[in-house]
Model the fold of this input.
Amino acid sequence: MQMRGGSSKGAYFLGADLPVEEVERNDLLLRIMGSPDPREIDGIGGGHPLTSKVAVVTRSADPNADVDYLFLQVVPDRATVTDAQTCGNLLAGVGPFAIERGLVAVAGDITDVRIRIMNPTIGFAQARVQTPGGRVRYDGDTVMAGTPFPAAPIHLAFPGGEAPVFPTGRLVDRFAGVEATCVDAGMPVLLVRAADLQIDGVESPATLEGDDALRSTVEAMRREAGPAMGLGDVTDKTVPKISLVSAPRQGGTIATRTFIPHRVHEAIGVLGAVSVAVGVRTAGSVADRSEPGEQGPVRIEHPTGSFDVEVDLDGAGATTRLRRSAVVRTARKLSDGLVWPRSGKATG
Done:
């Protein structure tokens, strides 16, 4: 099934429909999506990291979850499939997909789906899906920045954890000579002041991608930050992301431009936004823009609008922990049927 989940688009599969062996599974997915090819012209991928994604969903053996969700990023121009991170946008489609495939029974006009996230940092989420008349409702009036049309709201809630959200044990580090705050509230993110990179912070994604000097500095920072964040060598990984932060221009709390990590997001990822919001609410981070005791959602501006994130924090400073976060996304079923992968091996 192809679905738009949040501001991303991907292919959703039942786990039982894919090979168990990882190498065989990844080869099949490369051939299905049309990679390696920047246009993915011979597959169903969209030629961009945001539209070359896969969700694998199975019934969960965990009593605290209904389904397991494994996110796989298929890199358009390289024969690479990685599970190094999850995707909070594609997560928005997991609940509807699980209901459509009979993994979760409809429970009335609203059906809650408990999801275990199976990427390296295992976590849990709950999706609240509209199911009037016993079927998933996709149409609605919720307008979500990053997509052009309204749809039914899907409420996503994430429990917190015991680990501090600042993995280096510090609120401010320095990488490649530039100050940054390392946050991991579900997605490893490097927060950097746009001004420290000699940019305004509201440039278009195309402008930022075309700035070779900026991209070189951002990549140098990312590679230095990886080991400090406990991620090891991140040269060939898609984490950490890098969010450049600046003062808001449209009435929000903060403005962002996010490298994911080489292209620039047209909006912002769900869990990446949660990490930004944590930085905003923590005094002393490079993204600190909160008054003491301030409550309410953090409105994060991005290239195509804004995104509200609710975060409930515990503690202070580098020992801060996340109790809970919540967002509202939308999703829509685009197609449902069979796909014919190209023959041969993906690297052939």
User: Anything to note?
Assistant: Residues 212-228 form the longest helix (17 residues).
